[in-house]
Amino acid sequence: MNRASLLLIMLALLGASQAAAAGKPAFPPLEQWRAAIERGDAAALLALYSQEPPAVSLGSGGNLVTAAEDVQKLLALRAAGVTSVTLEIVKLLPLRLDVREVFYQAELKGPSNSAAQTLYFSGEQVWLHGKGGWKLASSNRTAFSKLRNPNSLSKNLYPPNADAEKEIREAIAQAGRAGKRVLLVFGGNWCYDCHVLDLAFQQSDLAPLLHANYEVVHVDIGEYNRNLNIAERYQVPLQKGVPALAVLDSKGKLLFSQTHGEFENTRRLGPDDIIAFLTQWKPGSSAGVN
């Protein structure tokens, strides 16, 4: 997908918090589309695409494809082991009485006893209503991700009035009492991947590991003009991008700082990558033993 199309999808997703607050919207044609993908029903899926005007799709590769080509790509998911498709409508816009624009998040899963990983993608669709009912006229999709995408950046991960120095001192004191380490996460509320990482930290396979072993402090860098002295102290090169992480022991000694932007593209990582990092630097591990 080209950068302009990806940006349009993300802007709509990120601005959808007010729609979510009003309750989850529903759109039956999208549910039919989802169910046909899950069943692997090519005929039913193709019947949902507009013939006049001809439907087009812009996939994550950045090339326009026809309805038949889009259906083929979607049904390849089932061939790859996907058996469950879950959609969440993030925003539903009535552009006209006969036109709906839908922004959604998709979650793909394989059977519980398989090694298939859960995948996510976001998308936008325009549906037209005519004599044949609702038909899909155009669509965009992001690339697959192993981590869930945020629906908005409304969560205040980095309060502008926070005292990072004080929070770090308190985290070190608490880590000393609890036998934990301190995880510093440098970033800003504008940072999409910072929110991806925060969602990952809340996943059921990650949260227990994080909470049992780390005190987490979010250090606001503003527009690269806040707390730069803290980043320098802990040897975090912010020019490599954010989120940027550093690990301290229970006495505040620096054990690790990322120097190559390892988490700058968090959306391209998987849960296993983050689990491996947290396991490597948790108390009692061989890394950073005092």
| The CATH top-level class label of the largest domain | Alpha Beta
- Biggest sheet strand order reads 2-1-6-5-4-3
Compressed to H and E, one letter per element, the order equals HHHHEEHEEEEHEHHEHEEH
Can you tell me the CATH architecture of the largest domain?
Roll
- Give the helix tally: 10
Write down the overall mean pLDDT.
88
Indicate the percent of residues in helices.
Answer: 25-40%
Gap between N and C termini, in Å?
Answer: 47 Å
Shape: elongated
Low-confidence spans: pLDDT under 50, at least 5 residues? 1-9, 11-22
Structural class label:
alpha+beta
Description:
The strands form two sheets. The chain has a six-stranded mixed beta sheet with strand order 2-1-6-5-4-3, sandwiched between helices. It has a four-stranded mixed beta sheet with strand order 8-7-9-10. It has ten helices and ten strands. The protein is of the alpha+beta class and 290 residues long. It folds into two domains: 3-141, Nuclear Transport Factor 2, Chain: A (Roll); 164-281, Glutaredoxin, CATH 3.40.30.10. 33% of the residues lie in helices and 26% in strands. Strand 5 (119-130) and strand 6 (133-141) form a beta hairpin. The model is unreliable at 1-9 and 11-22 (pLDDT under 50). The radius of gyration is 22 Å and the shape is elongated.
